[in-house]
Design a protein that fits this description.
13 helices, UDP-n-acetylglucosamine1-carboxyvinyl-transferase, Chain, EC 2.5.1.19, 27% strand, binds phosphoenolpyruvate, alpha/beta, binds shikimate-3-phosphate, globular, 430 residues, 24 strands, EPSP_synthase_CS, four-stranded mixed sheet, aromatic amino acid biosynthesis, EPSP_synthase
């Protein structure tokens, strides 16, 4: 890992690829397995750095978790078995670990200190602290507790009714996890639907969770029962292959066992609206989550407008969608996506820098970007900003570039997709 010289390929992608397990679902499988009673076996767990942080945290809280390749065996003994960790808990680069764990730790009757890497230390935490404080947790940290490191004194929570001020599944999940430990009922109201893996998994672990429209409610002090989980392939990881097959002439590639939960399939809607050749086969439901095989072929793309309720359904795919837009005829507009500025890096600024350096005609706006296509991409030296999704976008851009793309550092890719280059080589038959 380190500097990566990416050769232009122009070779079509073909055959079958299976991407690793979904990051959001993998995190949640560990959390719910660890707080329930009994043995939970998780298959196709994402062996990426972010999810491994979540595993290490529960081990530090006293839970026995055994891992063999992508299978986890979690020996849960219920919420009461979790014990105060002696050392500070490290969230690494993982926003999901941070937000969901802060929610859970808020409700546990002990003291914890938590911290992250330099990127996570810049990301806002007040979005989860505000509801947790309303429920009764005491926090301390920089800038009124908005940034890591944080000290958390948890326990004795009261249920609240909370309307999400940001369209965030992490915040929704944090409040629901705190609600599991609170007295009475906790209600989360979301105006725009965000990914619902927490709700699905609560149900799978036998919790009483109710959903009416955008209102999700949970009663506190429930006991969860262990269950087995199969983690579907991560559609966010698959999106790099969807994009590659769409823009490299002659490609036709199948990605098997991809999670197709409709709160996550915005990328497929976008590709279809752009004129992409998308086919879905073998759809089935496992553990409350839809999975299927997706075949994508090269096609001529047109520009579209991406906004509103669609944004949370493809929030992590916007960097790769921006690359697709450089290959579409006309002007693509992405708006209502200011949240991109609070990810592993400011993804609006990062996408803008990388793609314009490679020759794209792109403007950044406050809450998105405007991309004029179609443009030929050339080579160049680009930065990853230590952001896995920016690094993978640059790697896919290199497939159609006229010269080498030199990426300063590809190590961040291990956060969500450690085998990315191996799978890419396989699809290119190199
Ligand atoms: O809940 C989750 O697993 C996630 C929610 C999203 O973040 P927000 O909730 O901040 O939008 C997404 O960007 C992140 O990669 C994973
Ligand atoms: C934003 C992401 O993750 P997290 O918030 O968990 O760091 C991501 O994976 O793109």
């Amino acid at each position: 890992m380190g500097v990566k010289e990416l050769e232009p390929s122009h070779k079509p992608l073909s055959g079958v690829v299976e991407v690793p397990g979904d990051k959001s679902i993998s995190h949640r499988s560990v959390i719910f397995g660890a707080i329930s009673s009994g043995v939970t076996t998780v298959r196709n767990f994402l062996d990426g750095e972010d999810c491994l942080r979540t595993v290490a945290i529960f081990q530090a809280l006293g839970v026995t978790i055994e891992k063999t390749n992508t299978t986890l065996i979690i020996r849960g003994r219920g919420m009461d078995s979790l014990s105060e960790p002696v050392e500070p808990l490290y969230f690494g680069n993982s926003g999901t670990t941070a937000r969901l764990m802060i929610g859970l730790l808020s409700g546990l009757p002990f003291f914890t200190t938590v911290y992250g890497d330099p990127s996570l230390t810049k990301r806002p935490m007040d979005r989860v602290l505000i509801p947790a404080k309303q429920m009764g947790t005491v926090f301390d940290g920089r800038e009124n507790g908005n940034y890591l490191p944080l000290a958390i004194r948890g326990g004795r929570l009261k249920g609240i009714s909370y309307t999400l001020p940001v369209k965030s599944a992490q915040v929704k999940s944090a409040v629901l996890l705190a609600g599991l430990l609170a007295e009475g009922t906790t209600e989360v109201i979301e105006q725009t639907r965000t990914r619902d893996h927490t709700e699905n998994m609560l149900q799978a672990f036998g919790a009483d969770v109710k959903q009416h429209g955008g209102v999700i409610s949970i009663t506190g002090n429930q006991k969860l029962q262990a269950t087995d989980i199969y983690v579907p392939g991560d559609i966010s990881s698959a999106s790099f292959f969807f994009a590659a097959a769409s823009i490299v002439p002659g490609s036709e590639l199948t990605i098997k066992n991809v999670g197709l939960n409709e709160t996550r399939t915005g990328i497929l809607d976008v590709l279809q609206r752009m004129g992409g050749a998308v086919e879905i086969r073998n759809e089935q439901i496992t553990g409350g989550e839809t999975i299927g095989d997706v075949t994508i072929a090269y096609s001529k793309l047109n520009s579209i407008i991406i906004e509103g309720d669609l944004i949370p359904r493809l929030i992590d795919e916007i960097p790769i969608i921006a690359l697709l837009a450089t290959q579409a005829e006309g002007t693509t507009i992405i708006r209502d996506a200011e949240e991109l500025r609070y990810k592993e890096t400011d993804r609006i600024a990062a996408v803008m820098e990388v793609l314009s350096l490679l020759g794209a005609d792109i403007e950044a706006t406050k809450d998105g970007m405007v991309i004029h296509g179609k443009t030929t991409l050339h080579g160049g030296n680009v930065r990853s900003f230590h952001d896995h999704r920016i690094a993978m976008m640059a790697a896919i851009a290199s497939l159609i570039a006229t010269d080498h793309v030199i990426l300063d550092d590809d190590s961040s890719i291990a956060v969500s997709y450690p085998g990315f280059f191996t799978d890419l080589e396989k699809a290119l038959h190199r």
